[in-house]
Every structure is written in C-alpha cells, then in structure tokens.
Amino acid sequence: MKPAPFDYVAPTSVEEACKVLAEAGGGATVLAGGQTLMPLLNLRMSQPFVLVDINKIPELSGISRSENGIRIGAATRQCDALSNALLAAELPVLVEALRHVGHHQTRNRGTVGGSITLGEPAAEQPACAVALGASIEIASVRGRRSVAATEFYVGPFMTVLEPDELVTGITFPHWPSGHITLFRELAQRPGDFALVGMVGALALEGGSITRAGLGWFGMGGTPIRARAAEAALLGQALDSVNADAIAELALSECAPFDDHHASAEYRRTVGRRLFAKALREALTVREAA
Amino acid sequence: MNAPQLPQGLGAARYIGQRVLRKEDPRLLTGRGQFVDDISLPGMLHCAFARSPIARGNIVSIDTSAAKDMPGVHAVYTQADLAHFNAQMLSFFLLPPEVEITPLAGSRVCYVGEPLALVVADSRALAEDAASLIEVEYEELDPVVTLADARAGPPIHPGTSDNVSAEMGDEELDDDLAATLNGAAHLVMHKVVHQRISQAPMECRGVVATRDGNEELTLWITCQSPHMIARWVSLSLGLPQTAIRVIAKDVGGSFGLKNHPWKEEVSVILAALLFGRPLKWIEDRYEALTTSNQCREAEMTLQAAFDAEGHLLASHGDYACNNGANPQGPDNNIAVHMFLWAAYKMPAYAFLTRGYYTNTMGLAAYRGPWALESLIRETLLDKAARKIGIDPVEIRRRNLVTLKDQPSVSSMGIPREDITPAECMEKLLQHFDLAAFRKEQVAARAEGRYLGFGLATYVEPTGSAGSMPVMTGELAQIRIEPTGKVTATMSTHSQGHGTATTMAQIIADRLGVAYEDVTVFEGDSARGGFSPGAAGSRQGVIGGGAAISAADLLAAKVKTIAAHLLNASAETITINGGMVHVAGAPEMSRKLGEIAAIAYGEPDRLPPGCESGLEVQHRYQPPPMTFTSAAHACVVEVDAETGFVKILRWISSEDCGTVINPAVVEGQISGGLAQAIGMVLLEEMPFDARGNPLAATFKDYLLPAISDIPEFEFVHANTPSQALGGMRGVGEGGAIIGPPTLVNAIADALSPFGELPDTLALPLTPTKLLSVIEGRDLTAHSAPAPVVVSADVPASEPAPAAAAPAGEVRVEGAWDMVLKTPMGPQGMVVTFAIVGSAVSGRFDSPEGTQEFSGGTLEEGRVRFDLKVEKPMKITLKYDLQFDGDSVSGKCKMGMFGSAKVSGTRKV
C-alpha cells in the first residue's frame, strides 16, 4: 500500500497549476485535501505521473459573497465551510450537509472542491451543488469557464472536467432569506456515504413556492436533480402540497442500483418515503411558524 | 512440591476484584507501545508480494527478470527458491495439511491474492513497484467459490476426489431419532447462513525476521503466543526450537487470526534465511482484508422436536463451512455439535458436519469459532416459543439444565458439573423488568414504534488443557528482588487482554506486596515456558492458577526464612504491604527486600537445607475443561420505514467465575459484543462469481464504530469454578452470545409483521429487514450470472499409480494412513498381521503405539475395533477396503460419527 512513483509539484498560482496540468498531457492528478486521493494512490488505483498539490494556492481558499451568490474556493476545507458564518446564514442546508461528510478528522483536511470534483454519486456536496443550482468554475491554460453542476456530472466519479482543467471554485446562487431547507440522509454508520439521501431548498413569496431546488444522492450514477418535482411545486401554497405525489415525481427521475449494502428496490422504497417525509416536515414547520 | 490448595474463590483481597489501572495503558495510550512495525534493524530490507489476480488456475510461467533488474531490488523469490526448505504449513494442532500448501504458490494458484513471489527491496514502496513488474502467465480455470459450488464442482486440489476437507457424523438419520422428530407435537426447522467475516485486527499481520548464525532465527511477529510461534516454526522448518527466538511485546488484536504464521510470514522467514539480512513485511489493510485468513462462513440446518409443553425431545443438525483453499487446518467445526445442546436437557442429538475446500481465502479461527451453535440454537428456541405460544424465558426455564440437575452428562458426552446459564438468566430477569417492557412494547406499537426484547443463554468451554497436545498448562516464574520489587515471567500473552495487569493483581495479593511493585514479563519466547497463549478463553483460568500457585509457594518460602531469621514460627508470619510481620511483635517487622537480600546474599543465615534466593516457578495444570455461562438480553427499536436497528439497552449477566479485574472482564465482553453487533448488522466479506473479494477497504467492509455500540450493563453472576482461584474465562463469550441476543430482539420487534425469513442470512441489512416489514422481497438484486462450474473440467490430478492385479489383495504389512479427526488429519502407520481371516496389528502415531486384535478380513475388507484412552475413552470401529496399494474407508467414533480414512502401502 505505497503509491507508485510520481513527480510532485506544488504551484502557488492557478496559472502555474494549469500550466503543469497542460504539460502533463493527462498524466497529472490534482491533490487537494487528499482524503480520497491518498488511499487511491496507496492502493495504486490512481497512478499519476505528476501530483499537482493545490494547497499552496491562496486564491483557492475562502468563502465570499460574489455578484452571483456565494463563492466557495475549491480548496476550502470542509471544517472551515462548516463553521463559516456566511454559509450558516445564507446556505444553512449546505452546512447541514457538511455535518454528514465523513468525520471530524477527514473534514479537517477534506475540501469542498475535492468532494465536488470527485463526483461520488452517494456524496452530499455534489448533490447540494446540483440541487441548489450551483455552478462550477474551471480554469485551464485555454481559459476559464463555468459549468452548471447539473451539467458537470456524467456518471459515477465521472465529470466533464478535461484532464488539463482545474476546478477553482463553486458558486452557489443566492437563495432568499427565509427559504425552506430540506436534508435527509440514511447511512449505515455516521459518516458513511449515503444509502439514500436528498437535499433541497424552497423559496417562498406570499405563501406560495416561487423557486425549488431538489436533488438526490445515492440514487443513481450521479447526483440527480428532481426537476419534475421542482416544477410541480412552483406556485403551490404550502398547505396544498401533496408531499407523497411530489416524492413519487422525484423518484421517477432516479435510477438507483444494487450493491451489497442495499438493493435498488430498497433505495426506491425508502427514498420515496424519506423525500415525502422531509418535504412534509419542512412545510409543516414553516406553516406553524 | 505441590501447590497449596486454595479454598474455592479468593475471598477478600486487596487487588483481585478491583478495577486497578492497567499496567499496559500508559505506554499504549502515549504511543510508546512496541508493535512489529516499530522494529527497525540495521541493514533491514522490506518485502512485498506479487499475488494471484485469479481464483483458480495453473501457472504457466513466472517472469521476474524486470523486477530483479529494478534499482533498489535485492532479490525476488518464487516457490522454486523456497521449495528446498520443505516448510510444513501446519495447523494450530501442529498437524500437516492433507492437501498441498506451500508458502508461495508453486504450479497453481487457488485463491485471489495467493502470494506467488516475494520481492526484497530497499523500501516497501520499491518492493511494491517491483512486484507489479512480475509477469505471470496463467491457464485460468473456473473457480469454486460458494458452498454450493464446492458440493457440485470439481475438486480444487489435485489428488482429492471431492471438495470435502473434513467430515463427521452420519448422512442417514437414525430410525429412532427420525421417529421422535417426526412424531413430536412440534418440530421446528431453522436454517442459518453465516456470512464470511474478516477478523480485522487493528494491527495487521507483520513479521521482522533475521538470521543470527546458520540456523538461528529471531522473529518479531504479531501473534497470540511467542512460544507457540517458536514451536510452530521449529516443527515447520525442522529447526531446534531453542534456535528460534520470537518477540511480540504488544499486539493490536488477533481474535484467532494470529494463532500461528501462515503463507506470507513463512515466506518472509525463509527469505530471511536465504538472504541473510533482516527482512520486514508489514501487511497493509488491503492485504489484511483480502489475503489474511478469514472466518465464519457456514450454513447450518437445525431441527428440534418439542412436546406439547415445549420440552425438548430430540434434534438433528447439518452443518457445512467454507474452508477456503488453504485453511489453517481443515475444519468441520465439530465443536458446534459438542456444545450445541450442552446446557439443555436434550435427550438425543445427531449430526452431519462437513468442511469444504473452495477457491477463496482460507479459514482461520475467530473468537468463539463454534459460535454458530449458540446463534442457531437460541434463535430456534425463540422461533419455537412463538410457535408453541410460550414466552422466550419460559421455553428456556423448561429446558435449561440448572444447578439442581448437575452433575450430569449431555447427550454428546459433555460433563456438566457447575454450569449456570439458568441461574444467570434468573439474575438477569431480576435486573430487567420484562413485564414492564412488554407493556412499553405494546404502547410503542400503538404509536408505530417497534421495540423488541432479545434473550439468549449459553455455555462456553474455556481453559482447555490436557486433551490436546498444544493446549497445555501455564507457567509462572516469580522472584522477589532484594529491592523489594517482584518480577514475574508468565507464559501468558496479551493482544489487548491485559494479562500483565491481571497476573500482577493476583501476584500482589498472594505475596502481600503493592501492585505497583509487581512487574509481569511476557511476549518473548526466550522468557518463560510454552503456552498456546490466548486461545479458548484460557489465560485468566490457567495463567491465573499458575500465578496463584507460584506466588503461594514463594510466600511460603519467605515465611520459612523469616521465621528462622526472626526466631518465630512460620504460622505467625504474615506478609503485607511489602513488609514481613510477626504476630504480636510489631518491632520485629522487616521489609520484604531485606529478607530477599539475605536469601540471595547470605545463604549461611537461611534455615538448614533452604535453597538460596527467592525464586519459584510453577506450571499449573487445571481441570481439563472449565465452563463459563451467561445470559444476555437486549432491547432494540426497528424503524419500520427504513429497516434500521437501534440498540437501546444491552445487559450481560455472566458467570465467568472469580473476576480478577472487572474492567478487564467488561472490556473483554464489550469487545466481543461489538464484534457480534458487526456480524449481525454490518460486516460481510462477499465474493463475486469469479472469486474476487468485494470488500477490499473499510469503505466496503463495515466494522461497527463506537456510535454503533450501546453502553453495556453488567450484572455479574459469578460463581467460582473448580480451577485454582475460581476463574472461568471470558475472552470469547461476547462474540458467541451476542449474535443470537440481537437477532432475537430484532425478530421480537418485527413479530407484528411476521417471522424473519426461514433462512436467517447474516448480516441483517436494512434491505432484508424492510422486506420482512413490508412482506415483499426487496432484496432481489440484479444478480450477477451464477458461476458456471463445469463438472467435466478435470482437476489436474497426478496419474494414478499402477494398480495391483485384481483379486489379489495383500493386506499384510505396514500402511501409511490418514484419519480425518475433528482436530485435522492425523497421520499414522498401521501394521497388519493376517492369519486366515483373522486380523491383528499395531498403530504407530506421534501419540504413541497401540495394538489391536480380533479383526476380520473378507474380500479386501478389513474390520476391527480399537479402544483408545486419549483424548477420551472411546472405541473406534474401523472399516477399511484395500485395493492394490491403496486403502480407504471409515472409522466410526462413537457419538462423533464417522471419519474418513485413506492411505497407501508403506514403501
């Protein structure tokens, strides 16, 4: 369990990192927090020629308000995001989700960008990005681009990121103050990847839903946005929402699979239930308030 | 000199029974423990293995040239380089394997991960780099993976006719037993399918081996007893045991895995002998999960007949376990049947038990290796109680053997003298208000909450000594220094057991010195004497007895000397707080160290004939077997929407005899229960149809975390055993009684929805439990295609020897024979003398020589009886068929059923 030989570079700017990635011609792997990569290197499942350590690039860390919402630098530690006041005030559901990411020890090193970029279909942060409408900032020597999270994931651990590209940040759009948040996860042990999970946000105006962002994790090959369910919620008054019907709609967009921890049918059965319960409870709490 | 006899139990004591702080903890908690990977020797090189990526196949070629050419690589060894050592891959009972097992794969591979080349390099990373350059060409064969594959498939080992590795009992049900089963008021059938488990010790396997001189070896190895390792290596390699020193100061858990070295450790040892420089191999977690021996995978079907009131009448068990390809001794787990009904009034029991070879990782022991008996019995009893309409407590009250029913003997011949599962259960029920719980359960159900109560009882054989060659007594060597300090060298060994603490508590009490002044040394084969170490819950029982005996002998010597020096009678002398006192004469008190100084330095002042020094050793031989009993209960809540299980309470009421240190006892039980919870809810080592292990990291192999374990409550229900000191042993119990306790609670919680499936298949995943709750099968995986094991693929068997002419059977003379005993194959030479059709002869085996007569010969069939005394009195009925130069047949061994015999003419 020792990594195959590789070269190591630790650039101090995005430009420099991009240059290394471009020169490596696909043979480079980016090291952020290393909570997934280091085991993969040690298991020799990942055998890059060059390891590009981005931990020394200042502009990749930090959480700030931007014109499009809130930007989280790709190398921002999960523990820092978890205790960030801006996130707590404006994107509480992301903070809730972060509590379920790994353990204290892994969150001290693990980064938001690392998890987003890895694309583990049962992970919390990619699902947050998809559900809440985040966009992924990408840089390369060819320039910078931004990809909607919903377009970013193409399969388990597969994204549209090109080998010479670096994820530099994630921008979550602004959600109006007082929006409703939903988060439910079922994992066999605390800190495990989800058997089933859902996350979402609902914005209200005059007692009816004006914007909805809903997503699944652990329910298919990628994080899944529940667009049909979102559409069905728009314009509805809180007390008129049929949570079971919305959950059924949301489920129609999933394609969960079997593994030795749970069957696809289990994930569908419990997912539907979990989704409806989360929605029902969120709406009830808000109505009572 | 005989050890003074103690009254039963140890009565009032200053340290025994106290939660004194463990002597091991300061170094372990501050990172100063010494594990194998902490050892670094001058000139030491590192090892890594190239391993088979396929489960079954023939090796066509191995090309190590690229690996050898790599800078930093010193050597690459294959089996061709190691074969001349002829290392014997012995079992725990020190018996050779009956199929070919070599340290590195030779001409064939038989499981994924089988080591086939060893690289020696400057660093582990370089060694791994080089290992990946070794090119192997295989002729791949379809693997035999599951028990079903093993029954139907071709034999995986050349020279065998089927995949049965070990077999006992009878295939046909006795007519009387069948009649009782079928005629009973209630016949309950139950099947358990136990998944494969990884022992997963915190410290993976590892060895540092160095050759000191031509035939001398020093090994640092993570193990269960350095003495056992030294003996195993000595016998395996044919080196004198004194030429081998084995050191294992701290060990991070073992659980049966590290009883003795296996393929990797032996390969490293041989490589160190060949290469001459110290070599280190530290198993990484990927190797540990996929290529350390594994355990538990088994299936059992149990029938039990009850009368109308729920009294047991008869039972039959059919058991099979997956031995993998290279088990640490072929095993059919006879202990399952021996102890299945040992604590119950069960009039009749019969069984069939088999182990099978498959192309998977080999079997090793795991905490309570026979534990399936408690799982299947206790879950069957609850099922029966629901069927008969009585309470789980009541069905046990009607059937458990109580103290009033003893002494008695179980239907399998187990003597019961002081087992107390019924008493443990009653004590548990004083602590747990079951009636109140039932009310709470009803109220909760009305709210859609499903609570369940689980109960189980068991007995466990512990402290085994004297019936098997490696299960010996334990040795204590104690000396009092002129400094007043006491040092003890024990044959015990800790992999987390805290024996340096518990043995010190005993010695401090018996000698009358402070616990802080006693230091216990173990973990080095150069110190002390042989013991198999932590195996079968024995160290507290036997090591404790040895500590008592030796300390008492030493205290007696101190008193004799002090009486002489102080001109008092020995009866008036007491030792207390490190001081020697004379009754009624406080001014005559002396420090123990002063007496010691005289004992060593001024022999003239000692009583006539008294040997100088204050040193004593004693090997304690306990009764052949001791029993621990327990009853456990737990309360769970099952979430009917998700099938998730939450454990709300867990109560242990155990009789482990005298408790030396409650914290150590509770720690042992808690650890076993954590493993039990893992086995019931989380852990599984699955294989795909090609024999690939599917849980290669802790992301997929789910060990219980601290958040999955409740706070356990302890109701100690102890009674002293007949062993010196009254200890009973507690190492394995939690892992044995935990699974049925939890399964019964889950079944009780789900009883409004129906019974658990007829086949109880562990682990009980949320998917399986939700299937019960919803009354539909959610488990239907999009299953991979079943493995196709073509029966017409011939195993690569050697060509049969030329047969003798038919009809001319010559029995007279000596034959090499192998009897498949419950402890593994046993080799012997049988010499026959034939007069007409009368047969007599002689058995020669390592256990001794035995003669027989009165046998018969008829058309090549020889039948005779052999009466043996060891390990117990039993008549063995041999029925052999001779054919040319080979012989095969059966040996009927009383209640143990039949065992296979095979052999060839001795040349």
Tag the structure with descriptive keywords.
heterodimer; A: 289 residues; alpha+beta; Uridine Diphospho-n-acetylenolpyruvylglucosamine Reductase, domain 2; Uridine Diphospho-n-acetylenolpyruvylglucosamine Reductase, domain 3; Enolase-like, domain 1; 3 domains; 5-stranded antiparallel sheet; 4-stranded antiparallel sheet; 12 helices; 26% strand; globular; B: 907 residues; Aldehyde Oxidoreductase, domain 3; Aldehyde Oxidoreductase, domain 4; 4 domains; 8-stranded antiparallel beta barrel; 7-stranded mixed sheet; 28% strand; disordered N terminus
Structure description:
The complex is a heterodimer of chains A (289) and B (907). With 289 residues, chain A is α+β, with helices and mostly antiparallel strands. Chain A folds into three domains: 7-53, Uridine Diphospho-n-acetylenolpyruvylglucosamine Reductase, domain 2 (2-Layer Sandwich); 62-173, Uridine Diphospho-n-acetylenolpyruvylglucosamine Reductase, domain 3; 180-288, CO dehydrogenase flavoprotein, C-terminal domain (Enolase-like, domain 1), CATH 3.30.390. Helix content of chain A is 36%, strand content 26%. Chain A is built from twelve helices and 14 strands. In chain A, α10 packs antiparallel against α11 (243-251) and α11 (243-251) packs antiparallel against α12. The mean pLDDT of chain A is 95. In chain B, the strands form eight sheets. Chain B has an eight-stranded antiparallel β-barrel with strand order 30-31-32-33-34-35-36-37. In chain B, strands 3-5-1-12-9-10-11 form a seven-stranded mixed beta sheet, sandwiched between helices. In chain B, strands 7-15-14-13-8-29 form a six-stranded mixed beta sheet, with helices on both faces. In chain B, α10 (334-340) crosses α11 (372-388) and α11 crosses α12 (392-399). Residues 1-12 and 783-806 of chain B have low confidence and may be disordered. The chains are: A alpha+beta (289), B alpha+beta (907).
